[in-house]
């Protein structure tokens, strides 16, 4: 390896290990075809439709038992790791809290590392990924900036401040690039922010448009906030990533809970666009449609995962799971709800929170968190991770303190050993359950990936990576990734005629699940010998 050297620009530092990479894509056409591509995994959810499905079948239900770990890259960070490896031209790009990594997709060799340095405070440092286009990477930061990096060297190209992190704004979502724009939304609802969705010029970082996720004044939806003052701290985070229909040019945005989380009486009304999937024109930011899953939420039941677009029986559909434990399906032709299916035990959700405490299922750390459905067209099913776990919610004082949680109450979780992680299959047309895989005493929160080889791949928070038979849910193979809790997703790709799987492990959410305290983040790559 050549001697490492350091490049500096603005507040970022890039450590280039060896020669610079020649990264000139992906083009818009490549991005449009990302859902079908077999040699890449270009977005957090693979492609614009967020289907998390690969047409690869070199590794399949018949031979997956021979899968072996090829290599491991250790990030050396003991922090949140909830990304999915993103792969282009033989390179994995992956983000952690303040660092972005480029590693060889076959050998785990580090190619460059960029560290974002900031004097600003952050309330949450989680980051779930990036957008890549035309040789440039785009990612949000814990201090609510959007930055651009040269994909070949990690050199920082520009840095745009989007919002004020000192009052609770941050950017955890993996942005999406579309037609020369980078789309990203604010997070921080639990700290009493008022979120927006933004579009920036990819070349300059200048803002092109924004959209108020908490409408005010004469904006459509403002009438659903019957106490106008409550919109100032109304919440509405975008947590994970976004979905684009390239046929219409529309972006679908999952918008999380209103604030304060538990005190609905402080913000009477349905509270649009919280707990909704919002559909906007990606070029202009103009409103198109919305689908609200839970009006006037008082239990922190975000719609957090990006929705999935798919076709079944000749119809275009959109499906989205929520933290409340429901899987919703919609017909895109008339925007009508087709199904609402319980994924886990759901109790007392219609009852209001009280000061004495209300026992509910699930609690706010259960249901489907930041990972949505995988659409397996081979078996006409939606495969979804979920957590069955209950708790008690209590109403409390509504008091906003800058930079502190704005709950208006509290949530007591049942003991961690009562949690059950699940991967469930549902008929893509009707939403009816097909099969269930369960793990008692742990959670399954990372992204699920299905393949044409009848494999369903995912990791659990006990550090185990699983391969199930997509037709039955039967375990075909498993391997523990160094006891590193898996909160991220699995990517699969073809390199040189071999199919590889890459997963991130080492998520820091140990307080609720137990687990080793000093297992650092890592990317593990698997293939057949």
From TrEMBL:
Keyword match tRNA-binding: no
Entry keyword Oxidoreductase: yes
Molecular function terms, GO-annotated: oxidoreductase activity
Domain Pyrrolo-quinoline quinone repeat: 41-333, 420-486
Cofactor (UniProt): pyrroloquinoline quinone
A Pfam family: PQQ_2
InterPro entries associated with the record: PQQ_b-propeller_rpt (IPR018391), PQQ_rpt_dom (IPR002372), Quinoprotein_ADH-like_sf (IPR011047)
Extent of the signal sequence: 1-22
Keyword terms: Oxidoreductase, Plasmid, Signal
UniProt similarity note: Belongs to the bacterial PQQ dehydrogenase family.
Record protein name field: Pyrrolo-quinoline quinone repeat domain-containing protein
Source organism (scientific name): Deinococcus ficus
């Amino acid at each position: 390896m050549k001697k490492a050297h350091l490049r500096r620009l603005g507040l970022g530092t890039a450590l280039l290990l060896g020669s610079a990479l020649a990264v000139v894509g992906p083009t818009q056409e490549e991005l449009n075809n990302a859902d079908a591509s077999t040699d890449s995994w270009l977005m957090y959810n693979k492609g614009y439709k967020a289907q998390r499905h690969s047409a690869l079948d070199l590794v399949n239900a018949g031979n997956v038992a021979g899968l072996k770990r090829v290599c491991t890259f250790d990030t050396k960070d003991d922090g949140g790791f909830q990304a999915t490896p993103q792969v282009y031209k033989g390179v994995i790009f992956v983000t952690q809290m303040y660092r972005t990594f480029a590693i060889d997709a076959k050998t785990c060799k580090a190619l460059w590392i960029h560290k974002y340095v900031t004097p600003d405070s952050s309330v949450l440092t989680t980051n779930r990924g990036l957008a890549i286009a035309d040789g440039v990477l785009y990612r949000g930061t814990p201090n609510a900036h959007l930055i651009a990096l040269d994909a070949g060297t990690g050199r920082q190209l520009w840095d745009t401040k989007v919002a004020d992190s000192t009052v609770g704004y941050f950017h955890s979502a993996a942005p999406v690039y579309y037609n020369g724009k980078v789309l990203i939304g604010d997070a921080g609802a639990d700290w009493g922010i008022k979120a927006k969705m933004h579009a920036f010029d990819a070349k300059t970082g200048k803002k092109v448009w924004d959209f108020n996720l908490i409408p005010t004044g004469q904006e459509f939806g403002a009438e659903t906030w019957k106490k106008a003052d409550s919109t100032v701290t109304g919440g509405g985070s975008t947590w994970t990533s976004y979905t684009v229909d390239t046929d219409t040019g529309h972006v679908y945005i999952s918008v999380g809970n209103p604030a304060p989380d538990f005190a609905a009486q402080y913000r009477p009304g349905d509270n649009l666009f919280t707990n909704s999937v919002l559909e906007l024109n990606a070029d202009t930011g103009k409103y198109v449609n919305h689908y609200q899953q839970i009006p006037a939420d008082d239990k922190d039941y975000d719609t957090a995962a990006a929705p999935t677009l798919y076709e079944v029986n000749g119809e275009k559909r959109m499906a989205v799971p929520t933290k409340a434990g429901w899987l919703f399906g919609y017909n895109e032709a008339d925007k009508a709800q087709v199904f609402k299916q319980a994924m886990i035990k759901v109790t007392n959700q219609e009852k209001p929170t009280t000061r004495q405490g209300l026992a509910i299922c699930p609690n706010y750390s259960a249901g489907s968190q930041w990972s949505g459905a995988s659409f397996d067209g081979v078996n006409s099913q939606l495969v979804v991770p979920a957590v069955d776990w209950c708790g008690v919610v209590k109403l409390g004082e509504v008091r906003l303190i800058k930079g502190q949680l704005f709950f208006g109450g509290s949530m007591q979780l049942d003991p961690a050993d009562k949690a059950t992680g699940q991967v469930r299959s549902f008929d893509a047309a009707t939403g009816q359950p097909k099969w269930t895989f369960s793990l008692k005493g742990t959670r399954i929160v990372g992204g699920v990936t299905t393949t044409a080889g009848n494999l369903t791949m995912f990791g659990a928070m006990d550090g185990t990576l699983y391969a199930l038979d997509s037709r039955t849910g039967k375990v075909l193979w498993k391997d523990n990734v160094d006891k590193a809790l898996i909160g991220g997703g699995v990517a699969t790709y073809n390199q040189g005629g071999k199919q590889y799987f890459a997963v991130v492990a080492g998520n820091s959410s140990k307080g609720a699940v137990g687990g080793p305290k000093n297992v650092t983040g890592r990317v593990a790559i698997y293939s057949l010998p």
